[in-house]
Structures are given as C-alpha cells and as structure tokens.
Design a protein that fits this description.
Bound molecules: NADPH dihydro-nicotinamide-adenine-dinucleotide phosphate
CATH superfamily of the largest domain: FAD/NAD(P)-binding domain
Largest sheet: 7 strands, mixed
Mean pLDDT: 95
Helix content: 10-25%
Strand content: 25-35%
Number of domains: 2
Number of helices: 7
Number of strands: 19
Shape: elongated
Length: 306
C-alpha cells in the first residue's frame, strides 16, 4: 500500500498553495484534485483582486499557474477523487476513486464549498437545461436572451453584471429590499441599464417545457404573483462547505464548516488540517484561501517534524 507523508485533498487556491509550501519543505505532498480540478475559480471569469495581477487574470489561468508552481517544486498532483477517509488512527487511510487505498501521516483538507439551490421542483427538473449555479460557465448559452439571477450578495451582482454583458436583459431576484453585496458591486449593478432588480421577490418555481426553462413564477412580499419570461435561471445564493468526507470525524461548526483552532489550521484531530472555503464562512476569497493553504502546510510541517 502506498504511504505518503502529506496528503492534500482539493485543488483550489488553498490546496495548491499548501502543495507549494509542503513541497518546498520536502514533505513530498500528494494532492488529489477532486471532481472539479482548480476548484471554484475555474468557474469564474476574470479575477481582479488577487495581488500580483495588476491587469487581472482568468480564474482558470491563475489556477493552472498555481498548479504548475506546485509541480515545479515536486508536488505530486493527481487527477482523482478521495472517496473515503478514515481519520480514527494514524496513519490515516484514504480511498481513491473507490478502489485504491493509501495511507498518510498527515492530511490537509481543502475541499472548498459548493453552490446552494433553492430546492424547487422546476429547479431540479431543468438543471442543465436553463438552471445553473455558474453564470460564467453557462452564460454563453443565453447570449441575446433574457435571464434571471437569484441572490443579493457579491456573487449575484458579479454574475448579473457578467450576464448583462452578453444577455439582452437580466432580472435580479432579491428577497430583501436591499442588496447585501459590497458597495462597489452594487454600483456596478446600478450602472448596468439592462439589469432590473426585483426587490422583495421570491421564486415560487422555475417554469419550462421539453426544451428547457421558459420562465419563473415569482411572489413579491405583498403576495402578488407574476411570471417573468426567461431562458436562463442562475442561482447565486451562497455555498455549502464540502465536508462529507470528514463528517462525524472532524468537528464542524453549526453551519457545517470545519472548526479550526483559532489562528491555526489545526482541527480536533492531530495531524489533520483544514484550509480554504471548507473552513471559512466569512471571507471566501481566493487570497484568503491561498493564505490558509500556506498556514496549513506550515502547521503540517511542524507536526511532521515532531
Ligand atoms: P452571500 O451569502 O453573501 O449572499 C447570498 C445572497 O443570496 C444573499 O443576498 C441572500 O439573501 C440570498 N439568499 C440566500 N438564500 C436565499 C434563498 N433561499 N432565496 C433567495 N435568496 C437567498 O453569498 P455570496 O456567494 O454572494 O458571497 C459569499 C462571500 O464571497 C461574501 O463574503 C462575498 O463578499 C464574497 N464574494 C466576493 C466577491 C468579490 O469580492 N469579487 C465575489 C463573490 C463573492 P439575504 O441577503 O436576504 O440573506
């Protein structure tokens, strides 16, 4: 059975940064990329706020840069999914793609977070046929059409402005009378003429036919119902941390994020560290995830030296 000193699970900014630091510290890290190599940033367009890229950079390019940087120092980055993890005793055991088992002296969990859905029947029915949680991945299909984005946070504003650049009209369905997004993002929305914000509206259901989404039934705070004609329905209502692998083993907070000892990446299990969005309900920024990947690798190095 293969044995590794440092196993890293997840390939977003946190995982790759952990791999850069761990490989430079001679921990010979092995990183499994998971179902979505590169993580959430590969579903975004331009990243403008990561220091060091004054002209912005495509999310996919930045993730590829991080991956190559880790590989340059010897990190073993593998395409594969850790399908089970046993953290009861050391060495820890990981099953890869439901078949191979490897053991590890330490594990860095950097599995990130996934998009939330509203849980409506139509949303389920038309997923991939007009319903999407990633405007930058799927917006292209709705060029020149009318679409809607649900949510009032930074993601919703970002997705709405992106969609407005390719679609005819974008409705923002916001359940409150205000946006939660940062002032800069709100200004962008306000300055985009083909975005219409539908304040205090909730979606009753997504409507469609055999070709996909045709509309959405909305209800406003005063109980009035109306239908909007759209071909794309984009969710931007937040994320859920990906913790299925460690549930019941590693301590989670009430929202399901991995709990770490303040100021560190250490979890309740010695030798298991967490980095990135899987432990961060607040900031959820690439730079923060990258920094926490660095912290996890340094904590891991100290642990392995003991
Ligand atoms: P947020 O949690 O900030 O916002 C979620 C939005 O979805 C809120 O407006 C919320 O409404 C709404 N919502 C949640 N559940 C429902 C529901 N069931 N029905 C209708 N609306 C719902 O998530 P984001 O993904 O926007 O942002 C997460 C973090 O990432 C934030 O810290 C954000 O600042 C950051 N971010 C930063 C970016 C940047 O700087 N470029 C880009 C994207 C994200 P309500 O307000 O009523 O709760």
């Amino acid at each position: 059975m293969e044995h590794v000193k440092c196993l890293i699970i997840g390939s977003g900014p946190a995982g790759y940064t952990a791999a850069i630091y761990a490989s430079r510290a001679n921990l010979s890290p092995v990183l499994y990329e998971g179902i979505e190599p590169g993580g959430q940033l590969t579903t975004t367009t331009e990243v403008e706020n990561f220091p060091g890229y004054p002209d912005g950079v495509l999310g996919t390019v930045m993730m590829d840069d991080m991956k190559r940087q880790a590989q340059k120092f010897g990190a073993d980055i593998r395409f594969g999914v850790v399908s089970a993890l046993e953290l009861g005793e050391r060495p820890f055991k990981a099953t890869i793609d439901g078949t191979t088992t490897i053991t590890a002296d330490s594990v860095i969990i950097a599995t990130g977070a996934t998009a939330k859905y509203l849980g409506l029947p139509g949303e389920q029915k038309f997923r991939g046929m007009g319903v999407s949680a990633c405007a930058t991945c799927d917006g292209f299909f709705y060029r020149g059409k009318d679409v809607a984005v649900v949510g009032g946070g930074d993601t919703a504003c970002e997705e709405a402005t992106y969609l407005a650049s390719i679609c005819r009209k974008v409705y923002m369905i916001v359940r409150k009378p205000y946006l939660r997004a940062s002032e800069a993002m709100q200004t962008r929305v306000r300055n985009t003429p083909n975005i219409e914000v539908l304040w205090e509206h909730n979606t009753v259901d997504v409507l469609g036919d055999e070709d996909g989404v045709t509309g959405a039934l909305l209800r406003s705070a005063d109980g009035t119902e109306r239908t909007i004609d759209i071909m794309g329905f984009f969710l931007a209502i937040g994320h859920t941390p990906v913790t299925d692998l460690v549930k019941g083993q590693v301590e989670l907070d009430e929202q399901g994020y991995i709990k770490t000892i303040p100021g560190t990446s250490r979890t309740n299990i010695e030798g298991v560290f967490a980095a990135g969005d899987v432990r961060d309900p607040h900031y959820r920024q690439a730079i923060v995830a990258a920094a926490s990947g660095c912290i996890a690798a340094l904590d891991c190095e100290r642990f392995l030296l003991k």
